[in-house]
Known about the structure:
The structure is a homodimer. Chain A is an all-alpha fold. Chain A has one domain (3-356): Orthogonal Bundle (Farnesyl Diphosphate Synthase), CATH 1.10.600.10. The first copy, chain A, is 77% helix and 1% strand. Chain A is built from 17 helices and 2 strands. The first copy, chain A, has helices at 3-34, 39-50, 56-67, 74-81, 83-97, 109-119, 126-150, 156-184, 191-218, 222-253, 256-259, 265-269, 274-282, 285-294, 302-314, 317-334, 343-356; strands spanning 102-103, 106-107. Chain A has a two-stranded antiparallel ribbon with strand order 1-2. In chain A, strand 1 and strand 2 (106-107) form a beta hairpin. In chain A, helix 3 (56-67) packs antiparallel against helix 17 and helix 9 (191-218) crosses helix 10 (222-253). The longest helix of chain A is centred in the N-terminal third of the chain and has 32 residues, at 3-34. Chain A starts with a helix and ends in a 5-residue tail after the last helix. At the A-B interface, helix 1, helix 5, helix 7 and helix 8 of A face helix 1, helix 5, helix 7 and helix 8 of B.
Amino acid sequence: MSQEPQRALADFRIRIQGHLTDYLAQQTQYLGDIGSELIPVAEAINSFLLDGGKRLRPLFAYAAYLAAGGSDDDHVIRAVASLELLQACALIHDDLMDASDTRRNKPSMHRHFENIHATDDLSGSASTYGASTAILLGDLALVWSDQMLHASGISDAALLRSLVLHDEMRIELMAGQFLDIHEQALTSTSVARSLKIARYKSGKYTIERPLHLGVHLAIADPQKRKIYLDIFSEFGLPLGEAFQLRDDLLGVFGDPTTTGKPAGDDLREGKRTVLMAMTHDRADARQEGVIARYFGESDLDSHGVDALRTVISDTGAREHVEDLIEKLTLTALDALGRDEIDASAHALLSELASIAIRRSL
Amino acid sequence: MSQEPQRALADFRIRIQGHLTDYLAQQTQYLGDIGSELIPVAEAINSFLLDGGKRLRPLFAYAAYLAAGGSDDDHVIRAVASLELLQACALIHDDLMDASDTRRNKPSMHRHFENIHATDDLSGSASTYGASTAILLGDLALVWSDQMLHASGISDAALLRSLVLHDEMRIELMAGQFLDIHEQALTSTSVARSLKIARYKSGKYTIERPLHLGVHLAIADPQKRKIYLDIFSEFGLPLGEAFQLRDDLLGVFGDPTTTGKPAGDDLREGKRTVLMAMTHDRADARQEGVIARYFGESDLDSHGVDALRTVISDTGAREHVEDLIEKLTLTALDALGRDEIDASAHALLSELASIAIRRSL
């Protein structure tokens, strides 16, 4: 792979970071003017957003914008950077729902405010304070993402086009999140159901819809837009599923120093992923016994993690998921062969695809 | 008071209800197409939204729209009806944060899904399932409110004007909610702090900002708009504070059949309202003892509720809050005396003011 797309992505990432920094500085000032009690709120979102993240969603959106004929424009960078605030909402609420203690090797938002409750010697329940603050901070991040998009400085026409798509993307995200929560509460597993959740929760939201947002920002003509929307569905949907499957594997086999989560965290949480559904489908009685004993144990130690990892590998589920990721990725990359995607857009999108599905984060 | 504004408000209320019904029917279909598991989600928001509520925020917005020269327009009704979905988000998340069991005499959203968990014999923790679902349904209601506004059919120019105001309103709401959560965790009380929370959490969000939204929907010219925005700040801010103070009184003295909450619910929750801050300021040692014993006791019985009510009345705090409501309301109504507000707008806004601060709901 040439260095060129990597350099371009690094440049975009810096500009995305710059816009997020500016926006959050303005908002911190705004909240501070309402009351100094709000400074820790602004600081927590600042630190959450500025210390980590690959900026995948803004990068996919911007790459699609350029591929669809948009010219380099800082206002568009600002518009797509808003997706990071939406993602912050999803992660803050997700960590609270999953009772996760860490995110990017730091305390998750509700734990952070639990700690503040203790440090500042506040009254009442620390865990209620942490949970309530995380609910509100997620809501605030969701509203901020809207405001950052609305005030990005893109043309009125581009903004109006993007609103429809943006709303639909967010509804799909919430629907996918609910399907996931509901799945965890069912007694049976199903590969088909887990794949559908992966599609809504991550596939569409993480890749296809950001790409579509970029297309809406670039193209006014509905017929021309339709051509690119279709190409990016063909590219984005399989790639999004591959991305979620990689995430499943990292949740079980990933290195904590790169995932930012404890080893085997998804096993401890009992997360009903496609990987686990495939493991169930292939497990013999003894292997089912191991799963029944360890999967979803909140105090699972490294011995239990290893036992489950062995079952997941021995059933062939791990390899099957790796194969599926490769197959989905090849299908995705095929879609970039269309004449409408020029060489530099092709290089940028391929590089992003390889970042999305790579084995370490 | 003439019957005319009451008839007009009743008509607007029916049209608001009609638009909410239509929108939710569309969204139920949309979610059902993603997965039948999502039908209970759509039904729960339907029932939450269509079975109750005075529609105060849409009515204030529409009254301001008409007062500022807008002509009767069903698209604008649809746009302002979206405020009910934003309010649904606030209430669903609020009930979860406060661990409230009931809303409008029915189970609150998290309790409703706790019950579904039990009825459907789902696995895992019912309370975690209820809490997670309530977080996601609040998020979904917030996104729906956006979508309903965006797709209301108002002109592009009106929509673009309204976005700025709409974003600011929602940020103020979340800031006010956090200040409220934080206040509950402090060991001291303060009338000044509680008044500020009342202003952000309810005053601006419930009355001033909906009025401003109506003005933005009606007026394109910034200078003319400014005149109406100022009038409606003069009217809306004191009225909003009066509204919150009435809410404080209802939370302590209100009749459960009209509040939809158990008697003395705010006392059981230990809610740090302006009313309670004033009670603290005026209480003698014996009365402080009663407060220390009963206030915030989660299993407070009717004896404890009566003891606290007696202290709140005996200190004079109740009467003082009633006086303050009257004073704030008179200040608000004064603002309607301006030439820019014609007789029919005056009648409509006065009627709404009296609904907002009336003693029973």
